[in-house]
Amino acid sequence: MNAVNKNELIGRKASAYAPASTGNVSVGFDLLGAALVRIDQQPLGDTVHVEFSQQDEMINSGEFAHVCPTDKMQNLAWIAYVLFRSKLSNSDEYPAVKMELVKSLPVGSGLGSSACSVVASLTALNRLFELPYTDQALLTLMGEVEAGASGDLHYDNVAPSYFGGLQLMSPHESAPVINLPNPDSWYWVVAFPGFSLPTKEAREVLPKQVDKSVAIYNAQYLSAFVAYLYQGEQTLAAKTIKDVIAEPYRADLIAGFKSSKQHLLEQGALAVGISGAGPTLFALTSDLAQAEKYKNYLEQNYIQQEENQANKGFVHICQCAIQGAKDIELSN
Ligand SMILES: Nc1ncnc2c1ncn2[C@@H]1O[C@H](COP(=O)(O)OP(=O)(O)OP(=O)(O)O)[C@@H](O)[C@H]1O
Ligand SMILES: N[C@@H](CCO)C(=O)O
Description:
By secondary structure, this protein is α+β, with helices and mostly antiparallel strands. It has helices at about 5-10, 75-85, 115-130, 135-150, 160-165, 200-205, 210-230, 235-240, 245-250, 255-265, 290-300; strands at about 15-20, 20-25, 30-40, 45-55, 55-60, 95-100, 165-170, 175-180, 185-190, 270-275, 280-285, 315-320. It folds into two domains: about 5-180 and about 325, Ribosomal Protein S5, domain 2 (2-Layer Sandwich); about 185-320, Alpha-Beta Plaits (2-Layer Sandwich), CATH 3.30.70. Helix 2 (about 75-85) crosses helix 3. The structure holds adenosine-5'-triphosphate and L-homoserine. Adenosine-5'-triphosphate (ATP) binds near residues 68, 111 and 112.
């Protein structure tokens, strides 16, 4: 491409929205994740707008812009762009990029906040550059950037955020994710208490090794969960959600988690767990009226009410999102 054509690209725009996700879903540590959509259809995720420009530029906007690093080289959305570009064989043929990250999730939330920025950024860039990367190559880039933030490679936020649905990580590189049947009868009540828990910190409390009995329980619960979903037994699947790997070590890091979990289970919740690395709590029910009751309870009892918090807590009723960033089209 000559210089004239390069200039002609200036002004071309693309955008992407990446939904929040809940990693692990308790029963599949680092292996299972669900994309989330609020039932009131309000956004719960990040949007990235990109545009070919004369010079590189990055802007943060949105409700949680204040929690993003101001130095663009520290911002995962921009770090993703640098990586995206570094692996393009014809990078020199394209102009600079102006990026706006509309940050709608708090950081260190357990809702895949970093994944949302990475997925929205790479999806928007792939559109802007006219799809140089396949889904699988893009997913690998997403994992690489996410690993830089959390200290370990795990796809359980980036995969559902990009593909949507309930995604199980496969051991086969050629087909890295399995889209499980969508548990469409479940309402996910997700409560972010208003304080952050960095994923790195929440991973450091986990033991390096697990007992044989724990490994067997984990295999039993996860395999039964998947089998029930394929049998269409969504309630049984939800009741099979149990975390024997991380929750026993993380629960004490999250003020109010144990008491809220006990209360919600007594009220009939199908499952209650830590969303991702926490501190967000999720509770499942197939009854919308119950979901509203859990929401009220969590607003009163799980959300931190202190003044001067950098983040405000929130509770939303969600479902598993069918569409991820890949299939959500935004008008620029
Ligand atoms: N655009 C961004 N969005 C989120 N975090 C970012 C971003 N840019 C840089 N960071 C940094 O990356 C780190 C992300 O931390 P962490 O992985 O704990 O957050 P999280 O993605 O919200 O957690 P979780 O995956 O449990 O939901 C923080 O140190 C944060 O400052
Ligand atoms: N699987 C990751 C998710 C982080 O959101 C963890 O639990 O550490």
